[in-house]
Amino acid sequence: MTDQSRIRNFSIIAHIDHGKSTLADRLLERTGAITEREMREQMLDTMDLERERGITIKAQTVRLKYKADDGQEYVLNLIDTPGHVDFSYEVRRSLAACEGALLLVDAAQGVQAQTLANSYLAIEAGLEIVPALNKIDLPAADPERAAAEIVGVLGGDPADVSRISAKTGAGVEELFEQIVDKVPPPGGDPNAPLRALVFDSYYDAYRGVVCYVRVVDGELRDGDLIRFMATREEHPASEVGVLTPRSVEVAKLGPGEVGYLITGVKEIDQIKVGDTVTTAAGGASEALMGYEEPKPMVFSGLFPTDGDDFERLREALEKLRLNDASLVYEPETSKALGFGFRAGFLGLLHMEIIRERLEREYDLDLVATAPSVAYQLVRTDGSESTIRSPQDLPDPSEIQSISEPYVRAMIITPSEYIGTIMELVTNRRGEVGNMHYLTPDRVELTYHLPLAEVVFDFFDNLKSRTRGYASLDYETDGYRESDLVKVDILLNGMPVDAFSAIVHRSASQEYGRTMVERLRKLIPRQMFDVPIQAAVGSRIISRETVKAKRKDVIAKCYGGDVSRKRKLLEKQKEGKRRMKMVGSVEVPQEAFVAALQVDD
Amino acid sequence: MAILPPAHPDTAELAAGWRSAYVHIPFCARVCPYCDFAVVGGADDRMGEYIDALLAEIAMEPAWHPLDAVFVGGGTPSRIPLEHMARIVDALAGHFGLADDAEVTLEANPEDWTEQHSDGLASLGFTRVSFGVQSFDPVVLASLGRLHSPQQAAEALGVAVSSRFGSVSVDLIYGHPDETDDSWLETLDATVAFGPDHVSTYSLTVEPGTELWRQVRSGAPAPDSDVQADRWEQAAASLGAAGYTRYEVSNHAQVGHGCRYNLSVWGQGEYLAFGLGAHSYRDGVRSRRVRRLDTYIERVRSGIGPIQSSDVIGGWDAELERLMLGLRRSAGVRGGEGGTALLDSADGVRLIDAGVLEVEGDRLVAAKPLLTDEIIRAVLDLEEPAG
Ligand SMILES: Nc1nc2c(ncn2[C@@H]2O[C@H](COP(=O)(O)OP(=O)(O)O)[C@@H](O)[C@H]2O)c(=O)[nH]1
Ligand SMILES: C[S@@+](CC[C@H](N)C(=O)[O-])C[C@H]1O[C@@H](n2cnc3c(N)ncnc32)[C@H](O)[C@@H]1O
Ligand code: SF4
Ligand SMILES: [Mg+2]
Predict the structure, then answer these.
(1) In chain B, positions 175-214, which contact chain A (CB-CB < 8 Å)?
(2) What structural domains and CATH numbers belong to chain A?
């Protein structure tokens, strides 16, 4: 066990791409946690997808031995946090296991929305924040301005903000010293009953569920019978250890220490991240913090392009879920798309990542329906329910009210773009909140917006309107009643469930028109005219027609090429096989994908 | 042979029993930009060699029935000197025999046609000549890369009509982007004015690998299929008014002048084939000959024979092909087993519902001929009924 006064538990928090992973790599190198040979860039981002997208999805943690200038050896527990708003729940957990946070800001970009969102979470968690400006090696770096912005958020003196380059290593040594100096050592009573926070978990095919824990009081000992306080499950601690980043078994973990716990539990959802671990005998009476289930915010139907792949999709989802308790799904049947699943995600990025992993790691071809949020419905008979799919919305006559989730969105932008952002937000039914100048030319805007509006290409729009300069973060902000309607899309008079959407009445016309126009371009001409209509209830709000094709015949078929013509027709026939029949209309698979594409 | 309206069901079914032969002449003055037939441009010096090989191939073919129809196509058969043509006709007549009323067709390009040549071919026994006129609009002819003028086409037709051919036919191509509604109408009117017995109207097709295809791929306008549908309707109207019957998707004839060779192919009759790239269908086997001139000559000389590959067309496969070919005819095709399967299938129901396919007594007919391939694809998808 380590002397508590020599422990420093901290996270690095940063806007995406501000250099968190790179700095973590420097720290790993400096502390000799991994040899040069093992070093590959961004050691902590393990999943291929993370490395490719340069983002951290699943938090990692590592224990480092650091010899400080004072000649003492310290244990630094670096607890990585996911960098994206979709995973803010996980960020909170990770921060709860720390006493300090290293706030990293790109000196060229300055404070961004996730810088702020993460800073607020760290302040909320009562952490000591150590600010640093990264990438000072860049010619475009403007440390003075960025430091002023940081001070605008956190207070303090710009001179106290470290200036480093995680890439060249400049200033990094001094920054590590600051961590040791400024981040307080963990408190906690070694003699009190055990209380350890489960701040993350993952599934290992050989060892079952591995929990990452931070001991607050008492000792977590190998072999002890332990209890998870929220679930009341009891299991023996079959292995306790630390991550260096390789797993190293230890006999026990004391107050302030961070490590892992294995109990032989095989199912990820049997262990709740956020739960408190105590001993079964003489355990603590009060848990550390309540846990919330991570709530899925965005829902989408996932259907295999090839109906025969349904079972493979089920297996793939099961496997992904082993490592991601926030992924939820249930079977769904669509008239147009067949058998699939309705899946819930923490946000859009989460949705995209899951989809990509399903397609890439499990080699599935998927059609995903338009993302939807969860609505709260009150029927005329007073009963309440949650609607996660447009198909579940009853007839308007049965609806008393519908409420939709709202978010508080934080946008940081150069002040010249305020006008265009206002316009965007107003178009998206947003309400103006605060405006806070970080510096004379950079401003933090706060808005209240329906989540559904943010979920649909809001970010892309924001980026294009501000030439990429604005950043966005958001958090949930309750439900509000709205005038929402379901828009159905009919092909040749048949509603196509996959294209239905719940939208605000004011946007129904636009949604209907866009879908109808897109489909007109995507649906090939058939043997007869195909009307494409958008309808709210029985009212048609938009209509286009795919005119019947007029000519589909080979001009010339003579003795010399019966075989060739036949082959040609057979090839065309193969193309037809990849069509879905919607009533009597043949719809190419690609049309579903393309029509449901969020960005045009 | 009975003089029947070409679109008459009896004509169609009778054709299944005809035996024909196709002879391919690959030589052309130069290759037209849209053409993907087995052709060679500017290689007339190889004619002698080629015809030797052709005769050798004919001699290798096991004896058969006397032929009801012979089609000498190309390429440009009208470029072959009369004495060579005589050898070909003699070889066929000698080896297989010709039926008394056999149809013997020659494909011709207008610019080659002289009175002497015309009379000579007629005395060799050719009963039918088919001219590649394509258009009477000089703009369209130029765009198609043709070497002849409307004037030359007119003269050739005049000469042929006054020779002793039983049938004169004209090939037209419609739907080139440079063609207008008016120009097509004028071409049809001019054609009708010359009074050929038979007119084939083909929509310009961009065949992969051709010069036209390369041009379209690099941005040149492609033929518009809706415009082509309009032109097809115009052809049916103009020719119909002049007494022609459309008896196949692209073919129109006066009574008694349906092309027997083609009717036999669409009726699933058997045919021999000789020459570069030619396909034969004999004893239920369809065989394809090599498409390269040198390879063809070499393989015939060496005795290996020019066949590159063969397919056995039997059982259910043959039944589907019977429908595939027969549905192109205006007379349609006897339903039979395949027809029953089609009408029982989901596709069949859709085709009937859409008015594309019709049942007339025991026959299936493409009621919208321009959508025939919709039906054929459904046919090719049919599973053989169990039992
Ligand atoms: N020039 C320069 N580039 C850096 C520095 N630190 C990180 N980067 C680059 O910035 C990009 C984002 O860094 P990364 O560590 O993945 O950011 P994260 O998203 O916060 O983890 C990568 O291309 C890094 O190589 C730095 O100090 N200077
Ligand atoms: C094999 S060609 C030979 C006839 C002769 N050499 C000629 O060109 O006049 C027979 C007919 O096929 C038609 N044809 C050839 N290529 C075509 C294409 N790409 N699209 C439409 N018709 C075509 C032309 O009408 C042509 O007359
Ligand atoms: S269209 Fe006729 S002339 Fe032109 S290349 Fe083809 S066969 Fe020869
Ligand atoms: Mg990273």
Answers:
(1) 202-205
(2) 4-182 (3.40.50.300), 195-279 (2.40.30.10), 298-369 (3.30.70.870), 376-482 (3.30.70.240), 485-596 (3.30.70.2570)
